Amino acid sequence: MLEYRSSGKQKTLLHYNGTPSQLxxxxxxxxxxxxLKSQELVDKSKQIIGSRMKMDLFSRxxxxxxxxxxxxxxxxxxxxxxxDELLAAGIYSDLSRSRRKYYLKVxxxxxxxxxxxxxxxxxxxxxxxxxxxxxxxxxxxxxPFLSFDNFSYGFKYSFALMAIxxxxxxxxxxxxxxxxxxxxxxxxxxxxxxxxxxxxxxxAFIRIRSPIPSKKALFDIGIAGPIAGFILSxxxxxxxxxxxxxxxxxxxxxxxxxxxxNPGGINLVLGHSLLYDSLAWLFNGTHLPMNExxxxxxxxxxxxxxxxxxxxxxxxxxxxxxxxxxxxLVTGLHGWLY
Length: 338
Known about the structure:
Elements: E1 2-7, E2 10-16, H1 20-49, E3 54-55, H2 59-62, E4 66-70, H3 76-88, E5 92-97, E6 101-107, H4 118-139, H5 148-152, H6 155-178, E7 187-190, E8 201-205, H7 215-242, H8 247-257, H9 274-282, H10 297-312, H11 320-337
Antiparallel strand pairs: 1-2, 3-4, 4-6, 5-6, 7-8
Helix pairs in contact: 4-6, 6-7, 6-10, 7-10, 7-11
């Protein structure tokens, strides 16, 4: 008897009760079952794709069935139709291309779909609202633990920042749904460090749970989040600057929090950006000192949203910029290799 410990997609053999010859027979049986499933996948894929694409003779080298066709014999619309037909049959596929050909790698459907963790998503969302509200109250010079009125001073900041993060992640999520890619709802990460300057959250993310069908889908899914977050960031900056009082009003507001010559525990000068300075100039908000800007919830949330968007667009690893860069460059590299 073979006993396994399962961890996600991985299975680890823990114990076997039987002789070595029985173990060999069981392993041969498992191998036969695997090849049978692989052949079923090939047959099912061939039946769906038909004569529109030919199977690559070197598919075994790729670890999965690969179908190919010359670009002049297959339109992009037909490719999308093939992928939709495969997906309807429970088969995921990954599209790549060289200079002359399309390649469609057929992948087995994911077994045992992860169940949505609605309670966990909701819990993290509520906790992050709480930590950003606490942070927002502290940034406005109020102790949120003394009274609910003090706590409520953080609502504006929490609303703005959570809206920006939510828009960013829903951009990814909705475009994942558009391309029939299975994705989780956003996981928000709460953060609260009393006595330290921080935004009240470590951001949010979604999990992609199925292969992304093409580089175009990867590009669109990757860039949808930054665009949505960027739009909300600019919107809150505009609202914040439009409601900003004149220089005397700003000074009076800051002095309600701390004396101008004694900023207290925080004496941090935040950085400028061309867009931030342009909006400040457009709405006559250039008199707002950058070392006092975080006292104004919508402006600080918008500034932070721009910062997060800029960092996310860096072409590194699993950041959105890394996905976008890969989607843009890999086609040319693939064509060069072939």
